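Re-run with default settings, no changes from the original entry. Doing this only to confirm the output is reproducible before filing.
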Amino acid sequence: MRIGSVNSASTGIYAEDTITRRVNRENILLLGGGRALLMQLAHPLVAQGVDEHSDFRSHPIRRLRRTIRMTMAMVFGDRETVMTAARAVNRAHSSVRGPDYVALDPDLLLWVHATLVDSALVTYETFVKRLSADERESFYQESKEIGRLLGIPRDGFAETLADFGGYMDAMMSSGPVRVSDRARELAAQVLRPRLGLLPGQAMIPLELITAGLLPETLRIQYGLAWGRGRRVLFRSAVRTLPHVVALTPPLLRVWPLPGRTVSLGRQT
């Protein structure tokens, strides 16, 4: 599937000046992709469904790439593009089922959606800049639009961002989210994917970023190294990258550029 920019003004579900567009167009949000994937896999039923119904073990980056493509289409596309993307995601999920799970279970959909919302906020505020309380609340409320299109009922969402934080904490402390052996095996593919001739060591910086962004409880459950040296390197990245982002010209920093929408090309 190819995604391209078009010049016409957006008639999609988000206006140009929404916080959703401002946050999601930052290319550096890609650094939060590993965090979102590992949080999703920490739910045993999500990990089971991904493992049994996809090529994740051999091509882990494909899932992240598909998620990014569909998210960008739904955030920056016109209404036809948004609905086409939503139908494609829902159609793919409809065939994912096992003895203990179905991908269209609203609780599983909510967790996957929540990891993307939470990771976008955490990554943006870590590597771009802090948002105001009103901006954070608006981002959360706006995220429900996509969630509803993907099958989450209106009453399934936490009402406010504070309630959302409570939901996330409860899922990881007393809820079903627990890192399984299967999740650890899949996480190894995320943290050290095979990318052509690149050695696994080339992914160490991204592994460090992913570990630093993860909630501590999940970082511990995944068994990710987090000694003093790694903590110092992560804090250095947190201090440095926002300055780099601020100095990067929009042509390199954001996609799509303001005023441009995204279209879904033909699937290949």
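The chain has a mean pLDDT of 91. The chain has one domain: 16-250.
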